[in-house]
Amino acid sequence: LVSLDGGVAASVTMQRPDLYRHLLHGPGPDFSIPRGAGLSYAAASFFSNGISVEHGAFNRALELDVARARVKVEAGITLGELCSLLLPHGLYLPIQPGHGRITVGGCIAADVHGKNQKRDGNFIEQVESIELFHPSHGLLELSRERDREIFELTCGGLGLTGHIIAVELRLQRLPGRLIDIEALRFENLTAGLRTLAAASEPADFVYTWPDLMPAGPRFCEGFLFRPVFVPAGQAHAGGFATDQGLE
């Protein structure tokens, strides 16, 4: 296996269980590690001469409660698959990275962030509960009220606390199906950080494209993009709005 950036490679044994009994009676914690889509820049789901247990076969949506805006899924479901389920019901995950093939289990293991981390936080903020399997302790039900310490260790724990079996996620209502994007230019790193801080609260998404090549006072000049949902029924402005900064 090779990390996404190509920096780490290792010879491993790969397991692809497709039944829970294969997962629950697999190798012990000292010799294996869970693996989602394998799209981490680091070698997060494999090690030399180890066993990587891929969760791709466990990708079902188990329960969707539209009224409560909650969904329960298996860890191997991808963000793309989950979005295809949620969007027709006017629901979405506000915190998610921009890659449709990443699994929900991987998002929890890395405690990923989305396009407005300052305002919305990390993936853990929308995780209600986790079903975790540990070879030495069996199946564990984790939440902020039950085994909170293990719950928090699992979110960002890179699979070291066990195999994530299923997850209940808190969703949000989709404000609209169109987005207006404002492009804001900044002249250097200091101005970019100031613009980013000001843009984070009112925007639904925030991201930047800085230029790292210029030396001196124009280092990191670039653009900040501030997408905002257009509320349903409201006219779409269309195109890009540009400005030199935020007041």
Set down the secondary structure blueprint.
Blueprint: E1 13-15, H1 20-24, E2 32-35, E3 51-54, E4 61-65, E5 70-74, H2 79-86, E6 91-92, H3 104-110, H4 117-120, E7 127-134, E8 138-143, H5 148-154, E9 163-170, E10 172-173, E11 178-186, H6 189-200, E12 207-211, E13 221-230, E14 240-243
Side by side, the strands of the main sheet go: 4-5-9-7-8
Shape summary: globular
| Helix fraction bin | 10-25%
* H-E string: EHEEEEHEHHEEHEEEHEEE
| Alpha plus pi helix count | 6
Q: What is the overall pLDDT average? A: 89
**β-sheet strand percentage:** 25-35%
Low-confidence stretches: 239-247
- Beta-strand segment tally: 14
Profile the largest sheet: 5 strands, antiparallel
| Gyration radius, in Å | 20 Å
Content-based structural category: alpha+beta
Fold and architecture overview:
This protein has 247 residues and is of the alpha+beta class. The chain is built from six helices and 14 strands. The chain has a five-stranded antiparallel β-sheet with strand order 4-5-9-7-8, with helices on one face. A four-stranded mixed β-sheet has the order 12-13-11-14, covered by helices on one side. A hairpin with a 3-residue loop joins β7 (127-134) and β8. The chain is globular. It starts with 12 loop residues before the first strand and ends with a strand.
